[in-house]
Amino acid sequence: MFVNIPKEKTKKKKTNQNNSGKVSPTTVDIDMNWRQSLGQRFNWGGIVEVLGGGGGAERGSLAIPHLSVPDIRWIDWKELERLGFRGVVFDKDNTLTAPYSLSLWPSLSHSLRQCLLVFPGRVAIFSNSAGLYEYDPDGSHAKALEESIGGVHVIRHGIKKPAGSAEDIEKYFGYAASHVIMVGDRHFTDIIYGNRNGLLTILTEPLSLSEDPFIIQQVRKLETYLVTRWHQQGLKPPNHSLLQENMQCIKAPDL
Q: How far apart are CA 43 and CA 239, in angstroms?
């Protein structure tokens, strides 16, 4: 069930210039961060995973989440723990924070606290930005994110979603991937990765589309179009042993 919830607006960064009209180092850093972030979030691997090698429609089931919610406030963490799940791994950008931000989206703080209470020491972030060796080789971004969002560990890893195994996740949690929940906003990264590796997958709506580069907005439209078509064709996500069809893990949020 989807409900339209007003989204908070994030502020744009302003370009700084000195008296000579030259762009300041801060602006250069912002430009480099933007180009780096584009590489983090525009991932051909997800498209190839679904459409490459034939059988696109059949492979499309990997892009379909087990559950879909407007944001994490709609997730019933206690019910998921009762069903046997033992840990939660979040995407970062547009799931917990605005894109390229280290700060938790304000309205999600209560739900994240509830998640931490239900899964103490078993909540982490698995991102294509913070913690990914390609873009965060010294782990400084991951450390800053951990300090900003207290109680949540950032898992370091070497391969961008949707590629790669769940080895790093299983090592951190100490449980098989089938006992871990993957929460993210992208069909072709978070959901494909989770379904490929046997996690329960929960799709959230993006927190702030205005911060996405134009090309990412177009990729989102492609994802939505394809997944909608596959739904119409009757495709379903992979079966998950801990989640029965009629189980209710979605609740109205505490606004």
A: 26
